[in-house]
């Protein structure tokens, strides 16, 4: 099953690690980058590496967001191991960044570890098609605050200023045949109806899942990305009607034309429901 909820935890707050694992999230992201002050980077790396090596994930994905630049190799080497699902790479601007991480993981014997690239600059956004085809890449993401700063754009509550960037990573992912991108975090964990509505807009754009900064955000994200009973019934009905049609097209319960493209969407709904 593809994860839909990804919960961030600061890498220098070990008392939250086990709590995150039991929060109901599909995946935990231990953050060594923005959540950790420069003076505590080495301490956080050691704490995260020790916890990952000794915990029991019990089916929960464990990701680590590492630092860019000089600290990155040390971060990856420290956390590579059997329990690690993969690495979130910040500020990726070319496939070379992912290839370098791939070589490090290979050298550590982490053959199954995956990568996710965070697109946070204009250069990275234009390279999205290239990034999507890099080794070990499971899905793309956008670091929206960093990207907005790099582009010099002002984002309002509608976030329409980010529509082009969001659509770019969705298209690049589909073209490369990788998983759809995971939506970026929102700092809103008090107005949950607004957060859910925002997440629903991202689902309609083609994102699957969302990174969260607070456990309160997990339930709305799961609600958005779990098909309703009505959506499941409609998808099943579409597939049954198309299967029974005497040609390559059919008509759904509302009198609308259905064909293989509609069937693909229906299968996607049922896959998410499972």
UniProtKB/TrEMBL annotation:
Gene3D superfamilies: Phosphoenolpyruvate-binding domains
Protein residues bound to substrate: 65, 120
Single GO MF descriptor: lyase activity
Any one GO BP annotation for this protein: oxaloacetate metabolic process
Ranges where the HpcH/HpaI aldolase/citrate lyase domain occurs: 6-215
Entry keyword set: Lyase, Magnesium, Metal-binding
Pfam families, A to Z: HpcH_HpaI (PF03328)
Binding-site residues for Mg(2+), renumbered to this chain: 120, 146
Cofactor: Mg(2+)
Name recorded for this polypeptide: CoA ester lyase
Organism: Nocardia speluncae
């Amino acid at each position: 099953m593809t994860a839909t909820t990804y919960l961030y935890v600061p890498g220098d707050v070990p008392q939250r690690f086990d709590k995150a694992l039991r929060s109901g999230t599909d995946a935990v992201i231990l953050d060594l980058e923005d959540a950790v002050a420069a003076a505590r980077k080495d301490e956080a790396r050691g704490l995260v590496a020790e916890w990952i090596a000794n915990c029991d994930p019990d089916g929960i994905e464990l990701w680590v967001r590492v630092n860019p630049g000089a600290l990155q190799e040390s971060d990856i080497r420290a956390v590579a191991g059997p329990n690690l699902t993969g690495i979130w790479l910040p500020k990726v601007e070319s496939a070379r960044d992912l290839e370098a991480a791939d070589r490090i993981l290979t050298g550590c014997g982490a053959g199954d570890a995956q990568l996710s690239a965070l697109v946070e600059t204009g250069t990275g956004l234009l390279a999205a098609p290239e990034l999507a085809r890099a080794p070990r890449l499971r899905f793309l993401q956008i670091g929206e605050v960093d990207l907005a700063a790099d582009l010099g754009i002002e984002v309002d509550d509608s976030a329409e200023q980010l529509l082009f960037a969001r659509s770019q990573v969705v298209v690049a992912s589909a073209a490369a045949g990788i998983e759809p991108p995971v939506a970026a975090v929102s700092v809103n964990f008090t107005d949950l109806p607004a957060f859910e509505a925002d997440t629903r807009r991202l689902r309609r754009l083609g994102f699957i899942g969302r990174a969260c900064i607070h456990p309160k955000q997990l339930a709305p994200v799961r609600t958005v990305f779990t098909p309703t009973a009505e959506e499941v019934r409609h998808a099943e009905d579409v597939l049954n009607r198309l299967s029974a049609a005497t040609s390559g097209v059919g008509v759904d319960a509302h009198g609308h034309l259905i064909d293989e493209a509609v069937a693909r969407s229906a299968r996607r709904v049922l896959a998410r429901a499972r």
